Amino acid sequence: MRSPTTSRSTMRNTQRRTTTGSLQTRRTTTGSLQSRRTTTGSLQSRRSQSRPGRSILSNRNFDDDYDENSAKCHCANCKMRFMHRESSVEERYELEVKLADVLQCIDHQSDEALADLGHLVKIKSISVQQEHLRDSRDALEWMTNRLAQLKFRTHQYPISNDPHTCFVEPQRKVLFANYFSSPTKGTVLIYTHLDVVPADRDCWFNDPFELNALDGLLYGRGVTSGKGMAVGWLQAIECWLKINRDLPMNVKFIVDMMHEVGSEGLQHYIEARSDFFLDVDHMIFDTNTWLNSDRPMIACGLTGWAYFGIEVRGANKNLESGLAGGLVFEPMTDLCHLMNSLLNKEQEINIPRMDLMVKRLTVEEWHILETAEFSTYKYMDQLGIRRLRHGSNKVDLLQNRWCKPTLSMHGIQGADHKTECSKTLPMLVTGKFSIKLIPDQELAHVHFIVKEHLLKMHHELEMGTDMTLHLLDACEPTSWSTTSKATKAVMRAVGDVFQKQPVATAGIAACLPIASVFRKMVDKPIILIPYSRRLDRHNQENESIEEDLFMRHSKVCASLFYELSSLPVRCKCGVIPDYCKLWGVAERLAVTSEEAKPPVKRTLLTSIISKRAQARKSKKNIKDYLMSFDIKKLIKKIDLKRKPPSNNIQDEKSED
Predict the structure, then answer these.
(1) pLDDT score at 484
(2) Which residues fall within 8 angstroms of residue 212, CB to CB, at 6 or more apart?
(3) Residue 555: other Cβ atoms inside 10 A
(4) How confident is the model at residue 599 (pLDDT cuts 50, 70, 90)?
(5) What pLDDT, on a 0 to 100 scale, did the predictor assign at position 396?
(6) What would the pLDDT profile of 40-78 be if each residue is shown by its tens digit?
(7) Residue 623: in which H helix or E strand, if any?
(8) pLDDT higher than threshold 80 for residue 162
(9) How far apart are CA 542 and CA 208, in angstroms?
(10) Spatial separation of the C-alpha atoms in residues 341 and 601, rounded to whole Å
(11) 195 vs 108, 135, 534, CA distance in Å?
(12) Which residues, other chains included, contact 63 with Cβ-Cβ below 8 Å and sequence gap of 6+?
């Protein structure tokens, strides 16, 4: 028989072992849960790695950047210690009053605006023709001098890609201009261009390079594109400086003279001058997004593109058709079969799952397409064709133009392109095609399904050549919120000027490649401003715009400065050291106004303060605040009678 002590110790050991076992079991369970979480995390990381082209920009809400406190600002005397710097009611009221004066000033300066536009239209800045390259430089010089008169710091930089022509006159240049008002204000970047496409004099009513006003319309090459937009911004800035002596925001300009030829060299310089964009809060582009005369449309999306090259390789050298024809697999034949498989007989994309992630149109966006002022018959007449893919269905045609991905073929590299008859069999050819991407499509997904489709067709057709797919150039499509603070500011500016409520849409994306490039390289929020209507014959013969619409664009620019200045301002001390210590035009004007004040008021205020201080020092107790002088004297006499008689008779007499 065991003793009680032994049984108790055995029970304790058993309980300890059980507890230890349960703890080990819990640890094992916890470890398995952690391993599962780790496995889940690794799977998520693998998924994110397997989809590297996921557009972070398209889902990013830039308003979050303004709603978070700055953790990078370590300056002791930073003016922007808190990121939520809303302008006060008094400042907003003063700016609103000045905005009304600015809009009146724009009306009074309509003749000056038309004179500037006429001077720019007269310059034949045709960038696609080498003989007019000097004219493009003259337009850029005019813009440089004009901005310098408006207190901008201007710099011109050569952007030639060819080192052999880098110092050959006339040089291809780009203009960077900066107006710095204050570190406590937001910064906008405005892009515009001054080059135009060629114009045939025989197809115009009058000279395309002379501004003509007829029946309320302004005729001239460039009035609906960069030249008209640039003059609108200049007028808005000039009127703000006349009324306020300062701009409500910091403003930067990039003026391009090679826009119509793809802005050659500009992308490289954007990378080299990345410091120019550090303090930028918004990038502004003008677009032609008036689909009808009833309501202006504000696009909140940009299309992207994926430019592919199908490389098909046969033998190690080119052969002659008379000797090797019928003996080898010809790359040109296989390439034609592969490119033909990309489209069906209706010329629609034949790649499976291509429209899987396309943003669907809302009812309001569908109604916009239905009410768009677009004539299919006039469009066919302009192009000199008899049929369109979608016949006379306007909605389907416009939907394919803006709201659906499309595939276009551009050429074959390595094939015979000479006028003479050639019997050479090319053994290395590359077929080039591009796909227009719509918001919510992912570049990685499109690349994957195109490659999968071509490999499948290469296997099914049992081709004897080698095929490789190259992604030559690409840009992600992007869209942003229609209810963001910047979008609402644009809607207020446009609505107040036109007295019509604009509609903001992300489903009808704008096709503006330079804006997509800026968004890809600079990663800043974009603002698209509606400029002219679709019926204004943009870059066509007899290009024209309504004179009233041209002047209202200047007012929209001025109102947009006011609306964007009311948004919260980010602290930029983390990206630019000592940014808060910089002095701009606002600080210099404040110092000048302080020095101009008369010093009499300041001395008068100090004298009043000193008198009040002396009066406070003379009051010693509560009796001095409550009693008059006679009552004080009576109380002193009563106190003296209560005191014992003094031996000093002279003191008593003096007191009596």
Answers:
(1) 92
(2) 205, 206, 218, 219, 220
(3) 23
(4) low
(5) 82
(6) 344 344 333 333 333 434 445 555 444 444 444 556 666
(7) helix 622-626
(8) no
(9) 7
(10) 86
(11) 28, 9, 20
(12) 481, 484, 485
Q: Hunting for tokens 């290395």 — which residue is that? A: 428
Q: Say if CB 211 and CB 223 are below 8 A apart.
A: yes
Q: How many residues does the chain have?
A: 656
What is the mean pLDDT of the segment spanning 569-592? 85
CA 328 to chain centre: 53
Asked whether 430 and 414 are in contact (CB, 8 A), the reply is yes
* Strands 187-193 vs 153-158: parallel, antiparallel or unpaired: unpaired
Contact by Cβ (8 Å): 253, 147: yes
Q: Which residue has the tokens 């500009």?
A: 266
Q: Report helix, strand or coil for 605.
A: helix
What token pair was written down for 381?
Answer: 């007449």
* pLDDT (average), residues 581-604: 72
Asked if the model's pLDDT at residue 556 lies above 50, the reply is yes
Which has the higher per-residue pLDDT, 491 or 360? Answer: 491
The residue assigned the tokens 């602290």 is 571
What local confidence, expressed as pLDDT, does residue 637 receive?
57
Sequential DSSP letters for 71-125: SS---TT-TTSSS--PPPHHHHHHHHHHHHHHHHHHHHTHHHHHHHHHHHHHS--
pTM above 0.85, yes or no: no
Chain mean pLDDT for the chain: 79
Report d(CA 377, CA 361) in Å as an integer.
Answer: 25
Amino acid letter, 121:
V
Whole-angstrom distance, CA of residue 635 vs CA of residue 631: 6
Average pLDDT over residues 556-568: 93
- Given a contact cutoff of 8 angstroms between Cβ atoms, the answer to whether 99 and 247 are in contact is no
Compute the distance between CA of residue 84 and CA of residue 570 in angstroms, rounded to an integer.
Answer: 8
Nearest to 524 by CA among 269, 325, 252, 340: 252
| Cα–Cα nearest to 501, from 401, 303, 302, 364 | 364
Neighbouring residues of 274: CB distance < 8 A, sequence distance ≥ 6:
none
Element (H, E) at 406: strand 406-413
